[in-house]
Amino acid sequence: MPQIRLNDCLFHYTDQGSGPPLLLLHGLGSSERDWEYQVPALTEHYRVLCLDSRGHGQTEKGGNGYSIPLFAADCLAFIQAMELEKPHIVGLSMGGMIAFQLATNSPETPASLTIVNSAPEVIPRRPAEYWMAGKRLFFAHILPMRAIASGLGKMLFPKPDQQHHRDTFQARWCENDRRSYLASLRAIVGWGVSAQLDRIVCPVLVVSADQDYTPVEQKRNYVSRLGDARLEVIADSRHATPVDQPEAFNSLLLDFLQQVDATRTLTHEIDPA
Question: Looking at the keywords, is Ribosomal protein present (predicted)?
């Protein structure tokens, strides 16, 4: 398996296909395996790279000093080390937060962003939000990983015919390094770049499941504050949209990416400089 050392951490990644570069960023407590239903379709058109964030998957574990800005700095270092010119970036949940951070820090880097079931901030502002954040942190610190995996698996994949997804999710979740998982969770709560959204200059596709943790309306609100952005809602889906609705998600993503590429090609032909 390919590995690369960046920012004093040894990262695992995959690199498949050929064409314009496309970087996929997974969610909290997961790995590049988040994208197993996307990679075969995407590699027909793109060079697809998946990076395990620090503390996740087969990347080096630790748990000290984790933050979304650090994860974004890791991604930027990876893009530079791999010499990826204007990559498309797709982020699921925590991966979407990392993508937002990277695009506000380095607006010239991405060709496009696709944000899946995510947001530009996780800052509690109302009593109910403080309660939910506190409850999640509390139970994450006291419950065994297996219990967390069981509860999340049933929430993400509640249907009887989703037993395979539940079993797979629970088995993989239990592979997490507990210290790294908790450090990553703490990195999310209180993070935000909502005040810097005007720095994002690339096209943005926001994908929301109709039954995601956060309401579609919240995503509609932040999409309205972005420039070249649109929101698409996938029906009969929960937080793990690329897994529970892969065909709909893949079609939506490929259409968006190819529209962006066609526009970039046309712009270059009109103004090569």
Answer: no
Q: Output the pTM of the full model.
A: 0.95
- Angle, CA of 246, 71 and 210, to the nearest 5°: 30
**Are 77 and 6 within 8 A, CB to CB?**
yes
CATH number for 29: 3.40.50.1820
Helix (H, G, I), strand (E, B) or coil at 269: helix
Cα distances (Å, whole numbers) of residue 218 to 16, 89, 231, 251: 35, 22, 11, 24
C-alpha span between 180 and 169 (Å, rounded): 18
Structural domain including 265 reads 3-123+193-270
Answer yes or no: are the C-beta atoms of 231 and 208 closer than 8 Å: yes
Total domains in the fold of the chain: 1
- 111 is written with which tokens? 């060709």
Tell me if residue 90 falls in helix, strand or coil. Answer: strand
